[in-house]
Amino acid sequence: MTLSPFFLLLALYSFANLVSLLFGINDGGMLIEGAFFELSGESLIYAFLLQHVFLLILWLIYRTFYTARDSLRFQLGAGYGFFILMLQLFFLAYNQIQGVNVAGVESHGGGALDYLFILLAPDVLFVMIGLGLKSGKWFGLNCLVFLASMMLRGWMGGVLVVMVLVVCRHTPIRISLRTLLRGSIALFIFAAMLPVLIEAKWAMRTGLSVSEFIEQMLAVGLDNYGEAVRYVMNRLQHVGHVALMLEHASQLHEAYLKDAFIPYWADGLPQMTVYKVLGLDYLRINTYLVNALLGYPDAYWNTNPGLAGWAALLQERAVMLFLYVIVLLGTVYAFLRHYADSRYVMMLACLSLIYLYHGWIGAYFNFCFYAVLLVFLCRLRLRPHSAERPTYSENRV
């Protein structure tokens, strides 16, 4: 029996949304991005069901294209490890010196280096290159830099990405006593550090001093762990967001028809480039919802509408959204299965739950775009790489 990170994530998100659904029905509403919104039980139930329609679609596509056995193992040499390490270090230094790319804070970048990092996408390339690195040492070193970079920018989600990435690198993993022990230890360490990670996230976003942060850490008690668990569960769910969008579906649909925000298919780096070249406005629904629906007109942060939220506002046009998801994932998975290996299919499937399912469509599209581009260039031998064809062997960890 093997361990599937995709099914673990699917179960986690389903459970988080179920718990939030029950509490939302009981409380007559939900706390969404710091404000309480009254929501009907009917809206919450419809939102939950719509979410699971998309979970079913993501699962069916995953089951269609993922295979645990490969005749080909796509591996990248030390040169790639060095390249992505240098890129991440330069990106980290640039962000700290310029004070840009911090979550929830208005960015004042726009120089040549800023555009260079947008094009190279260090975070995305780390995941795609790190997954195929042959050297465990280069992989581990890059993971540490990635986590430091994410935390310094006020993002806690990097921890989840690295955890999934580590598991996908060793896919398929056979379930054993050793596997369960290692997994339990990792979860215990993560749980023990949870309040620290959350406080560090807000410290970076608010500019808290080191001394103030240490004082807060020294005051951590059992209550903080309870609050940390509730915070994480709230971040994993978006049933409340979808229910709120269902109740304002007509308003959002009208805004969509008036081009108040870009359509779902225009979210991504290549599409954004075209919009910018043509001089068109480029506002994502993630930010529009915060400004127009959640009541923060001057906010620079964004929220997660979910694929279900998009379907709610699109109404009869939602059919095209379903087709978009099926074609995008089917095409990318088929390409990666043929030219890379099952680890890349598994990683993109997991990212479809972390990003696409939650409505971060552009972020997920970028992962797909750079994964295909990386594998394509390597297979054309336009970059130095190492691709081996060992016989299949199951990883035991």
Automatic annotation (TrEMBL):
Source organism, top-level taxon: Bacteria
Presence of the UniProt keyword Transmembrane helix in the record: yes
Keyword Transmembrane helix among record annotations: yes
Transmembrane intervals: 6-23, 44-62, 74-94, 115-133, 139-168, 180-198, 318-336, 364-382
Keyword entries, A-Z: Membrane, Transmembrane, Transmembrane helix
Designated name of the protein: Uncharacterized protein
Classification of source organism: Bacteria, Pseudomonadati, Pseudomonadota, Gammaproteobacteria, Pseudomonadales
